[in-house]
Specification:
The chain is an alpha/beta fold and 321 residues long. The protein is 44% helix and 16% strand.
């Protein structure tokens, strides 16, 4: 295809990577299969050894733009640098390991043409909605809709298209000391500016593997809960996330914490046994549950922990047989 016919890319895939050339190679090949071809991929390499450079050069596609950071800036600063280096009107934030479907941009292109002028367009799982159902929300209602787990059951930033000027206007990806939940905060804050559009379809998926960031950074969960709560609470008016006494912010944290900690507990109990990490999970969980806004989660957490421990003999029996 003659890419020179495009004056500038319509959208920029913004990515940070760190010494995962196999994942990066697969991800670039997946993105390049998009049915809508007017895009660029901006890769910021956090590895001081520039391990991603050869992957990009070997691929040879002119839409790949490679920027070595020279040093490890940390995940957030590296992602934000990729936004700074992008040239598209719209942005897709994406990791080097979570693939998107080939029709993603084509779907968003049609969606934005039909509903122009919003800060965020997100493909997510909406509760009790038909697949591909489209909903439009103003800035005051979008945060509640995206954060409440009984309204939006699954969301990923790689299944979103952000308006670049809106994204840069909020400062990009929030840098509050932990990458956990920073993407969710970014979605809520962008949607609060001038509203957002949701389509009931996931265009990306989270791939679980041994090198997922969450598996090696359990010590950041307390900070994530604290800073996410503080950021949303200080940045948004309460009516943006509390409706009729229903607090979407605390319910979002409740679900995220329960899901994340028990996913880790299961992994390090059965798949990659590590008692030291289980102890770390217990200690970090105890800290989180002491937070005033997480008190309501304690009963749910301990009930789930009892059930988890009761099921262990049955699970081990299945593995052995």
């Amino acid at each position: 295809m003659d890419y020179e016919k495009f004056e500038k890319p319509w959208v920029s895939f913004c990515m940070s990577t760190y010494n995962r050339p196999v994942f990066l190679k697969q991800q670039l090949e997946t993105i390049l299969k998009q049915s809508f071809q007017n895009f660029e991929i901006v890769i910021c390499d956090n590895d001081p050894g520039s391990s991603a450079e050869n992957v990009v050069k070997t691929n040879g596609d002119p839409r790949l733009r490679y920027f070595p950071n020279g040093t490890n800036l940390g995940m957030i600063k590296s992602f934000n640098r990729s936004i700074e280096m992008s040239t598209g009107e719209f942005i897709v934030m994406i990791t080097d390991d979570d693939p998107v479907i080939p029709e993603m941009l084509e779907n968003f292109r049609h969606l934005i043409e039909k509903h122009p002028g919003y800060g965020i367009y997100i493909g997510c799982s909406r509760v009790n909605k038909k697949q591909y159902a489209v909903e439009v929300f103003d800035g005051q209602n979008f945060p509640f809709q995206i954060l409440h787990p009984k309204l939006t059951s699954n969301l990923l930033w790689s299944s979103c298209v952000f308006k670049k000027d809106v994204l840069t206007g909020i400062g990009g990806l929030p840098d509050y000391g932990s990458p956990h939940l920073a993407d969710h905060a970014m979605m809520a804050l962008c949607g609060n500016i001038n509203g957002g559009v949701m389509i009931n379809k996931m265009f990306s998926q989270l791939i679980a593997h041994d090198n997922n960031f969450s598996k090696g950074n359990i010590n950041l969960y307390y900070n994530a809960c604290t800073q996410f709560f503080n950021l949303i609470n200080s940045s948004l008016k309460k009516e943006c996330y509390i409706k009729n006494g229903d607090n979407a912010l605390v319910k979002h944290l409740d679900r995220w914490f329960i899901t994340a900690t028990f996913s880790l507990r299961k992994y390090f109990t059965y798949q990659n046994k590590n008692r030291e990490i289980i102890t770390q999970i217990n200690l970090e969980s105890a800290k989180v549950l002491q937070l005033p806004f997480m008190q309501h989660t304690r009963i749910k957490y301990f009930l789930k922990l009892i059930i988890f421990n009761l099921k262990r003999p049955l699970y081990l029996f299945k593995i052995l047989h």
